[in-house]
Amino acid sequence: MKRLLALCLALCLSCSLTLAAAAEDAPAWKGFRGLDWGASKADVIALEGDNYSETASLDEATGLTGLLYTDDITVSAFTDAYLVYILGDRGLFMAGYAIDAENPGADFDYLESALTSLYGAPAPEKEAEYVALLNGFSSGSPSRITCWLADRTGILLSADDYGSIEIIYIGLDFFPDLRPNTTGL
Q1: Distances (CA, A) of 172 to 28, 50, 55, 70
Q2: Which of 34-48, 78-92, 131-145 has the lowest mean pLDDT?
Q3: Which has more confidence, 123 or 126?
Q4: In the chain, what percentage of residues exceed pLDDT 70?
Q5: Contact of 171 with 22, CB cutoff 8 Å
Q6: pLDDT by residue (tens digit) across 55-111?
Q7: Which residues of 136-175 are buried (b: 16+ CB within 10 A; e: fewer)?
Q8: What is the pLDDT of residue 106?
Q9: Cα dihedral sign for 48, 54, 57, 63?
Q10: Domains in the chain, please, with CATH?
């Protein structure tokens, strides 16, 4: 779970200039768990409830708010997950799950298959960017990683050698460098 928060913080810090420079009137779009990217803290609490821990380390380091939910979080076939929402000045821009896997290889394969059924073929051209972010800011490197691009959301599935699996959802309009170049298509 600490790795999930470290990854979210790393992405925030490495892209803080991009986030600050984003247009003030960016439109809302489908984001995470039924919330639009840009949703407010109140919107998150209305959806998930007020049984969260606010991550002070994010607030002190970046001015961002992290809401961590640990009770009754189900992700696909996993019933003991952690859920985190990361919000900035313009609202929700990143969120994800952390799972302590009992069978890391099989569990990763299962989630990879499930995510592929939802988002289509993975985007291997983005994996190097995500690995570089993980290696630069996280305490450990992922042993496996797969990512997808869907609408305005980037999805990252990663696992380490210790049985931790994370699924991170990123609002790509807040991080345009992570979006595919679709000019002229």
Answers
A1: 12, 27, 23, 26
A2: 131-145
A3: 123
A4: 70
A5: no
A6: 766 666 677 889 999 998 999 999 889 999 999 888 998 899 999 998 999 999 999
A7: ebbeeebeebbbbbeebbbbbbbbbeeebbbbbbbbbbbb
A8: 95
A9: positive
A10: 2-15+37-178 (3.40.1000)
Q: What does the alpha-carbon distance between residue 6 and residue 168 come to, in Å, rounded to a whole number?
A: 12
What are the backbone dihedrals phi and psi of residue 102, each rounded to the nearest 5 degrees, phi first?
-80, -35
What is the rounded (10 degree) CA torsion for 159, 168, 178, 63? -120
Query: How high is the pLDDT of residue 134?
Result: 52
**Residue 18 corresponds to which amino acid?**
T
Quick check: helix, strand or coil at residue 1? coil
Q: If we measure between CA atoms, which residue out of 143, 94, 73, 147 comes closest to residue 116?
A: 147
How many helices, marked H, and strands, marked E, lie in the chain? 6, 9
The pLDDT value recorded for residue 31 is: 82
Alpha-carbon distance 168 to 44, whole Å?
16
30 closest CA partner among 139, 173, 157: 173
